[in-house]
Design brief:
nine-stranded mixed β-sheet; 579 residues; 11 helices; Purple Acid Phosphatase, chain A, domain 2; TIM Barrel; seven-stranded mixed β-sheet; alpha/beta; 23% strand; elongated
């Protein structure tokens, strides 16, 4: 998406300048008649508030500011009810937390604070406090669902839903892991419903909002929303809004803006140092809310503090999502992204015939970048297969064609068990130049993706003082450079950094996660709709059919694409756990 940035704030304390569904266009609650969205050039203005819902002066001040803007409607990022004790999550609590401030926006309002809206103009998303702080009772959200009038026809329920207003398609998503029966991962029923509706929409803009932040530098809930790192950009989402942390933060990730908006009126939180990668604006000095104005071409977004100061301001330009007269819904960016269901073959050494065995009926082949002939890549692709090309990005191999390009200062200690390999200083500009050249070679040979190996030097006796931050930086460098060349890229092992890197990589390649009981961590990839290609080497898996069946039963239950192969990867034998 195209951004126009009017202001950037890097101060932890903040800085400021003076003041489903089969018919996505009619996902509207009880307040919008069919056809009202046909003119997508209509301009709209809406407000966003999160983590508010308390009977105090701070919440009242934010609410008064929002009402002064006269927005067309309001959306929330959850935790709408901060009422005390037994009231929380009940009709009475919602009256005190929401009704007294926003009753005139609520459709079919049944409370005592005044008139409601003739057409619903209030679209919340639930947080944990709206459940009464626990998901133990499946009926815990019932009062919330009864209090608000929400577009259940879009998804079949009111926990998550979609609606269209003017040029914007909205998705209110239920992000609480233990509370949502339809799941909260990208491949869950809820996630796939969002994907279907988003890809079918012809709206110039699409906004997703929910409670748990996918990325945050807040000191209370950092990392707790990692399960919401869905492939938003691939699905055509332009802006992702969340709450939970009582801060305002804007982060630039995946070519879109992620917002944490939790300063609606309750106690304010602080930031961790250093901040999460991609953080460009951080503010927690006062309460406030977001004001968003949208035309057919531009979405203008502000966060405004209660004193009227504009803390952050940026714009998003529409690239168009197609429609009946366009080119259709947006597809994924132009590089290979394998699906979770894709099968694979891994052969890095020639077989007994000094060749790559191209006869397997699989979706993906993973072969050596240097040794595989270009003709083999072309043959595989002509047969309808994708080709991943392997190279070592974190180690020097003295037998490679470009070995003489490494400098003595680039080379560290010998890899354990591999006498002809030495760890590389991944901070070296020369090392990175060589890796760019290898990615160029992958493009020239026609590879669809790459598997860079040995990207865990920071965990080993590499001979350099490498940190976890160094490794994250190098691994993201590889991902960015691969994507810039139209190549998919897999994360090889590096289990400890999966949560931080799953959004940057398109698939994972692992060795022996079953043997070492490490497969659980890869659910982050599978939950994001990205496959895990795994290889097991134990003799018992190859020689004992009952052991192999137990292994494969576990692999299928986890949705991991597991092979049993020789450690030399020479195709001397092969068993697959796929049907």
């Amino acid at each position: 998406m195209l951004f126009g940035f009017l202001m950037l704030c890097y101060s932890p304390g903040g800085c400021a300048i003076p003041a489903n569904g089969p018919d996505p266009d009619n996902q509207n609650g009880n307040d919008h008649s069919p056809g009202d969205n046909d003119n997508v050039s209509d301009s709209i203005a809406f407000a966003v508030i999160g983590d508010y819902g308390d009977s105090d002066d701070d919440t009242a001040a934010v609410a008064a500011m929002i009402r002064s803007w006269s927005p067309d409607f309001i959306i929330t990022t959850g935790d709408n009810d901060y009422s005390d004790g037994a009231y929380r999550g009940t009709f009475e609590g919602l009256e005190l937390a929401v009704g007294q401030y926003f009753h005139e926006f609520i459709g079919n309002y049944q409370g005592d604070f005044g008139a409601g809206a003739a057409e619903n103009r209030f679209f919340p998303t639930p947080g944990d406090h709206d459940w009464g702080d626990t998901c133990d009772d499946p009926a815990g959200l019932n009062d919330y669902l009864a209090y608000f009038t929400l577009p259940a026809e879009s998804s079949g329920n009111e926990r998550y839903y979609a609606f269209r207003r003017g040029p914007v398609q909205f998705f209110s998503i239920h992000s609480l892991e233990d509370c949502e029966p339809d799941g909260v991962t990208a491949d869950s029923a809820q996630g796939q419903w969002v994907r279907q509706v988003a890809l079918a929409s012809d709206a110039p803009f699409q906004v997703a909002y929910f409670h748990n932040p996918p990325y945050s530098s807040g000191d209370r809930h950092i990392g707790e929303g990692a399960h919401m790192r869905w492939p938003w950009n691939e699905w055509g989402i332009d802006l992702v809004l969340s709450g939970d942390d009582h801060i305002y933060e804007r982060l630039e990730r995946d070519e879109i803006n992620y917002i944490v908006n939790g300063l609606g009126g309750v106690d304010r939180h602080s930031f961790v140092d250093p901040p999460t990668q991609g953080s460009v604006v951080r503010f927690a000095d006062a309460h406030g809310a977001m004001r968003v104005r949208v035309s057919a071409d531009t979405m203008e977004v502000e966060f405004v503090a209660v004193n009227g100061t504009v803390v952050d301001s940026f714009s998003i330009e529409s690239e168009g999502n197609g429609g009946p007269d366009g080119e259709g819904p947006p597809g994924p960016d132009e590089w290979f992204r394998p699906s979770v269901a894709m099968t694979w073959q891994w052969q890095l050494q020639p077989d007994e015939n000094e060749a790559i065995n191209t006869s397997y009926d699989v979706d993906v082949y993973d072969i050596d970048l240097f040794d595989a002939p270009e003709s083999v890549i072309q043959q595989l692709q002509a047969d309808g297969r994708k080709v991943i090309c392997y190279f070592s990005a974190g180690s020097y191999e003295d037998f490679r064609d470009d070995a003489d390009e490494f400098l003595p200062a680039d080379l560290g200690n010998t890899l354990e068990g591999f006498a002809d390999e030495r760890w590389l200083d991944i901070r070296s500009a020369n090392v990175r130049r060589i890796m760019r050249d290898r990615l160029d070679q992958a493009v020239e040979k026609g590879c669809d993706g790459v598997e860079p190996d040995n990207v865990t030097g920071f965990e080993n006796d590499a001979g350099f003082d490498l940190t976890a931050a160094d490794q994250l930086d190098f691994n993201r460098f590889l991902a960015d450079e691969a994507h810039a060349r139209g190549l998919g890229i897999g994360l090889k092992n590096d289990l400890g950094q999966i949560e931080a890197l799953v959004a940057d990589f398109d698939f994972a390649v692992n060795e022996q996660c079953h043997e070492f009981d490490e497969c659980d961590v890869y659910q982050a990839f599978i939950g994001a709709g990205k496959p895990v290609f795994n290889a097991e080497y134990l003799d018992e898996y190859a020689n004992d059919e009952s052991e192999r069946e137990a292994l494969c039963s576990d692999a299928r239950a986890r949705n991991v694409r597991t092979l049993v192969v020789p450690v030399d990867l020479d195709d001397s034998f092969r068993f697959t756990c796929d049907p």
